[in-house]
Structure formats: structure tokens, C-alpha cells
């Protein structure tokens, strides 16, 4: 059963707010008027679907996944993502988007709703210019260390409910808003959002990695596929994906293992390990636990 906790973070206090209203299509599909910075934590021990959501005319939503989740995300009728999201993976829902979500596994996630007026004010502080329109590029379930750590800190502070929680949470929320503008807004001064700087050469390297996941391609081979010197390839790849080439390879191996486990009634971990490029079952288990926080066996039980 779906459960959530919605909190409004206003200057005069931290208050429990009505959750985003349900419409005929489930949670969030009734729309929501967001007048203050708001935090919503939603979780379910069962797979579920909801949406399409009502339109949020005056806010952006920053959403992170707290647990490994297999999901499908549909925006304005188009499927934009289908697969596994790791803990810390995030996306940005923009105003006027209608989002439908299918969760194929139990899930736990946190969403921070940031009023557009707040983003405009912060943008003016950053650039010194008035901007009527704010356009944030959706990283679409890429991992962001700062957002992951910040949102988890906010959730923990809410659980504690200390007297100084309001000031802490408000500051953290504003820092997240600043980070989003600096790194993900169109025309931002910060580093490109993950994927924005993808060049043809990096895409060629990614295709090479995808085709050779089980073969342990070396850094030199990846750079060669991109037709770049090794040092430049390492920098360009990091800028494009927010991961090193080796981290990306490991992440994709774990993703592939998740897909194989989910599609098997009685998965044979030793065979899956070799098919995904791991040395053996022990190597798979160690890496799987480090990346997703659960063992392959426990992951299987949630399918």
C-alpha cells in the first residue's frame, strides 16, 4: 500500500501538509498548488502505478530514489525511462509536465518541491539578472552525490523533529535549489548536467562498452573507441556521465545483472556473474552489494 508524508517548509514553521491530492488515476494525479518549499516522502512495500500527475504550474520537483527500483517513467505520454534506478538516482519534474510512473518493485523515494519564484530569486542572486522563465534540464535518473546526500539529510532531520530542524531543512532546501540552477539550468555557469556534453566520440565509447560488458575492456580500448587520448577521454567521459569509465562499466554490469535476475524465476548467480563480466559469483555479490546496498539474493526476494 502506498504511503507518504508531506511537509511544508515555510518561514513561520515546519508543518505537516496535505499530501499531493489523488485524482481518478491515483496519487498526485489531482495536481498541487505549491506555495512554499515542500518535501514529500513516498514509499510502498508493493509494486504500484500512479499518474499521470496533475500539472504543477508553479514548482519544480526534485525526486531521488532511496532504494534500488525498477520503474518506467512517462512524461506527457512519452516513455522517457525504463529500467533500474540506483539509490541516489534523481530526476527533475518541470512545471506543466504530466508524469506517469510504473513501479515494478517496492520503492522508497523523496521529492522536494521548489516554488518557481524561489528559483527566480536565487537565479537573480547568481547572475544579477531578472529571468522570468526558468528551464531546468531533467538528468533523468542520473546519480548526483550532492542531491543524494542533501535529500537524505533533510529526511533524517524531519524524522528527528528537533527545534532547530526548520532552519536546517530550509537552508538545505535552498542549497539544493542553488545546486540545481547552477548545474542543470539552461545556460548555467556550472558543469554540464550529466549527458549534456556527450559528443559523438563519447557516445561511440559508450556503445563499445555496452557491446563488451562481459569482456572487461581496458581504459586504452575505451579511449581508442572514442578516438581520444586516454587523459582527454577520461575527462570527457566524466563530464558526460558524471562517472569514470570504470565506474560506468561497473554500473552497467550491475544493471545487466538486475535485468537477468528479474527475468529469471530461479536465477543462477554463477552464470549471471560470468555473463555480466564478473570473475565469479563472489565478485558479483560483493559489487552488487556495494552499488545497490543489497545482495543479489535479497534483491531476488523483492521481485
List keywords for this structure.
single chain, 303 residues, alpha+beta, Jelly Rolls, Arc Repressor Mutant, subunit A, 2 domains, 7-stranded antiparallel beta sheet, 4-stranded antiparallel beta sheet, 10 helices, globular
Describe this structure in words.
The protein has 303 residues and is an alpha+beta fold. The protein folds into 2 domains: 182 residues, Jelly Rolls, CATH 2.60.120.810; 102 residues, Arc Repressor Mutant, subunit A. Helices cover 41% and strands 22% of the residues. The chain has 10 helices and 11 strands. A 7-stranded antiparallel sheet has the order 2-1-3-10-5-8-11. A hairpin with a 2-residue loop joins strand 6 and strand 7. Helix 1 crosses helix 3. The radius of gyration is 20 Å and the shape is globular. The two termini are 16 Å apart.
What is the helix fraction of residues, given as a range? Answer: 40-55%
- Rg (CA only): 20 Å
Total of domains? 2
Task: Identify the CATH class of the largest domain.
Answer: Mainly Beta
Going by helix content, strand content and strand pairing, the class is alpha+beta
The rounded distance between the terminal residues' Cα atoms is 16 Å
Low-confidence stretches: 189-198
Largest sheet: 7 strands, antiparallel
Number of helices: 10
Query: Shape from CA axes?
Result: globular
Tell me how many strands there are. 11
How much strand?
15-25%
Average of pLDDT: 79
> What do we call the CATH topology of the largest domain?
Jelly Rolls
Helix and strand topology:
Layout: E1 3-10, E2 13-16, E3 37-44, E4 48-50, E5 59-65, E6 69-75, E7 78-85, E8 89-93, E9 99-103, E10 107-115, H1 116-127, E11 142-143, H2 145-160, H3 165-184, H4 200-211, H5 219-226, H6 230-241, H7 245-262, H8 269-275, H9 281-292, H10 296-301
Antiparallel strand pairs: 1-2, 1-3, 3-10, 4-9, 5-8, 5-10, 6-7, 6-9, 8-11
